[in-house]
Amino acid sequence: MSRSIYGGAVFEMAKQQFEQVANHLQIPKMERDRLLYPKRAIAVSCPIHRDDGRTEVFQGYRVQHHLTLGPTKGGTRFAPSVDVGEVAALAVWMSWKCALAGLPYGGAKGGITVDPYTLSPRELEALSRRYMQEMIPFVGPHTDVMAPDMGTNEQVMAWFMDTYSMYQGQTINEIVTGKPVSAGGTLGRREATGRGVAYLVGRALDHLGVKAGDATAIVQGFGNVGSVTAYSLAERGVKITGVSDHTAAYYDPAGLDVAELQRHITKRGQLAGFSSQSTIEPSDLLLRKCDVLVPAAMEQVITDQNAPKLKCRILAEGANGPTTPEADAILDRRGSEIFVLPDILCNAGGVIVSYFEWVQDLQRLFWEEAEVFDRLYRILERSFQQVIARAKHDRISHRMAAMAIGVNVVQSAKRTRGLFP
Ligand code: GLU
């Protein structure tokens, strides 16, 4: 494609990764644009009344990557960095992620360019509801199903569901996932991504012959993914030596008390102020020696600058797109030194349990928590085995292997269906 609306560093990164995997899979040139470029992109203006009486307009987006396997699926991000390129890249990654896990979805992602921490609770509700209202013609339980991402949570999903339902004149639980259990959500969704990361870290440790009780971990990001990952790793016996969020970073080789951190976050809403003794420069945190490094915040934090200096055994990507292609090339050269759990495998627990939520909502039949996690771990185990086997067989990195499996699924469905989806 010579020109498109998709640009920026994050989309370029998704494109570069795709080209690499397409070359490996020898996908003919004429099929590549269909596989990479999103089917649809929606841009909306969302006006709200601010508390001080002003009217302000925020830009919102939703990108639906492909319709080949079923409805599209993916989170909604409220962050200052949001633009159509970033959202498109995240939608593309959702596609490979869903395909790798065997879910009947194409990828999607949406977002609003806003710092949610600058909004009052009333303004946040108004913006969430306005965004969903603008999206009503383009989403639906069998068209596109939203979920939380950075800057959104269960409450925002409840407002989305309620706004959509008011328009339909009846409750449509299955329009979004990641809802509170009291509003048609599933048990386990909130913890799903973090517990999935911890499960896969456990499998990687087994693979390397390291006991969880002897391992240390550093977690960057203490939102829904990072905090549950830290908690679940600690539950498995891993010592958490470092954590950070956008306000502070802490490192203590003797181990941090995760329950204490959690209590601090519940009270203050941020890590800053937790301790004055173990503070450390956030950029240094990634370079400390540990067994498991979990980037669980932003894209593009592992770069060609810090990749040569990482001192971890396992890189477990809780965030989407934390490692740049340049950093990947360096990790590849470092060979078996660092065992990478690539994002589309490592953080897939979220969308897998979102799928369970959607299935339960459609059936009006709800599962016990044990059933949710049993099914989740079975899917993650299968994906983990597939990625390891494919990487070995094709002599490629875990990331390339995970993507190759995902891209293959979408490619063969497109080949058998035709041009429509
Ligand atoms: N936003 C999450 C992700 O990036 C979850 C998406 C979903 O549950 O649909 O995987």
TrEMBL record:
Keywords from UniProt, A to Z, are:
Oxidoreductase
Q: Which residues form the Glutamate/phenylalanine/leucine/valine/L-tryptophan dehydrogenase C-terminal domain?
A: 186-418
GO molecular function per UniProt: oxidoreductase activity
Q: Which InterPro entries match?
A: Aminoacid_DH-like_N_sf, Glu/Leu/Phe/Val/Trp_DH, Glu/Leu/Phe/Val/Trp_DH_C, Glu/Leu/Phe/Val/Trp_DH_dimer, Glu/Leu/Phe/Val_DH_AS, Glu_DH, NAD(P)-bd_dom_sf, NAD_bind_Glu_DH
Organism domain of life: Bacteria
- Offer one Pfam family short name for this entry: ELFV_dehydrog
State the similarity comment: Belongs to the Glu/Leu/Phe/Val dehydrogenases family.
What name is this protein filed under? Glutamate dehydrogenase
Q: Give the taxonomic lineage as stored in the record.
A: Bacteria, Pseudomonadati, Pseudomonadota, Alphaproteobacteria, Hyphomicrobiales
